[in-house]
Amino acid sequence: MSSVRLVEITDENRDAVCALRVRPGQERFVASVARSLEDAASTPEAEPWFRAVYADGEPVGFVMLSWNVPPGRPGILGPYFLWRLLIDGRHQGRGFGRAVLDEVVALVRADGGTELLTSHQPDGPGPFYREYGFRPTGEVDHGETVVRLTL
User: Fold this and answer.
1) What is the CATH number for 27?
2) What angle do CA 59, 61, 65 make, to 5 degrees?
3) Which residues form the N-acetyltransferase domain (predicted)?
């Protein structure tokens, strides 16, 4: 299994993290890091929490969640919603995505969370999430299938 660290994004690492890209053809499934940071800044009601994913001292990915969102905020799924998970195309297939989920699940549990939600396009990374243990909720959000991992 691949070991990862979730690292705060700073002025020193921002350019390297924003340079991460998924494989060609995957861009329609996940927004870029730069776009994700813009979305976080423009949607504070979603309580965005984000980190760079590092392995062996270099950035290999990015993760962003809605973190412990109070109930009743219109249009915001939660309280814990995996909003973005991006592993750079050069680093895919090495277990980093699963390792990031392991880290996120541990953090959400430690914060008292009992479930983690995410969504994906019908032809997107659904098999990855199902293999990890996420199950469909029956909901659709902006055309994406909503899935739940019970913690």
Assistant:
1) 3.40.630.30
2) 125
3) 4-151
Domain count of the chain? 1
State both tokens at 15.
């350019």
> Where do the H-state alpha helices sit in the chain?
14-18, 33-42, 96-110, 126-132
Beta bridge partners of 64: 50, 84
* Rounded-to-integer distance, Cα 151 and Cα 89, Å: 29
Spell out the per-residue pLDDT of the chain, length 151, in tens: 568 999 999 999 999 999 999 988 888 788 899 999 999 999 999 999 999 999 999 999 999 999 999 988 988 998 999 999 999 999 999 999 999 999 999 999 999 999 999 999 888 888 999 999 999 999 998 889 999 999 9
